[in-house]
Amino acid sequence: MKRISLLFLAFLLFFISCKVKTTEKVKEIKSKVNSEKTSTKAANVTILKKIFVIDGLNDIPHKIWLYLPPNYNSSKEKYDVIYMHDAQNLFDNVTSFVGEWEIDETLNNLYKKTGKSFIVVGVENGGEKRIEEYTPWKNVKYGGGKGEIYVDFLVNELKPYIDKNYRTKLTPENTAIIGSSLGGLISFYGGLKYPEVFGKIGALSTSFWFSDKVITFAEENGNQQKTRLYLLVGDKEGNSMVPDTENMAELLIDLGFPSQNLKTKVHPDGKHTESFWKAEFLEVITFLFNLENNERTNN
Q1: pTM recorded for the entire structure
Q2: Backbone dihedral region of 273: left (phi > 0), alpha (psi from -120 to 50 degrees) or beta?
Q3: Collapsing DSSP states into helix, strand and coil, what is residue 120?
Q4: How far is CA 288 from the centre of its chain?
Q5: What would the pLDDT profile of 208-242 be if each residue is shown by its tens digit?
Q6: 204 neighbors 264 (Cβ within 8 angstroms)
Q7: E strands in the chain
Q8: Nearest partner of 182 among 209, 222, 153, judged by Cα
Q9: Are 205 and 241 in contact, with CB atoms under 8 Å apart?
């Protein structure tokens, strides 16, 4: 019996050793793959030297990525500003999870074609704490619920810093908040909670399923007359994503949200991926900032 126990113990130690080595090997492979990636961020994308630690939000440092227009240094004009989340996925393939949005390439091309420019402020997520940061309410299964702290940071600390140090247009009609998935949820929440700050909301593949409290929140805050809102969802994202998005759009219209300020797009081939959001980003900002009409006016 003692011999069997020793054999079992030896096997267990061998199994654990193999598992640890396998885990270390996987980490080594991932690290090697990342180190072999070539940075794809444009020259006009930087990471601020100032690192923000959001009070009450897990004491995790948050890096801020900044996209400045190609003509920023050669002009004196002020710019519309887009605040975005998950900055790791916006500009650079090296830091992206499963591919980047190519925000910098898209906006640089837009500038070349139309002369239209934006400043984009991207806030890195807190990694394992991402769910907490991007959810205003708790979920029984997934937890979360610190989104109010995050949004208050954007409004009370980050935006004032950006406005003080860069040439920005200050009004809500010149300020957007855009994100996807839980980032879409926190954008929806932040835009409706602070319409005097964010006049434009891009809620892409929004996780309305996370909490039923989003309905009550929309009922209390959804009757916005000046806010522009773009709701995007893909038909291949899951069973509830499309009806959740369409139901939210209907609720807002019933509450008095102007139909001309709300666009809901259901893409038949859309999946819950960065490549989907990358492909749709230009259309999102075209609607939010009324670029087509502005271009016609300028011509």
Answers
A1: 0.87
A2: beta
A3: strand
A4: 16
A5: 999 999 999 999 999 999 999 999 999 999 889 99
A6: no
A7: 45-47, 52-53, 61-62, 64-67, 80-84, 118-123, 175-180, 200-204, 228-234, 262-267
A8: 209
A9: yes
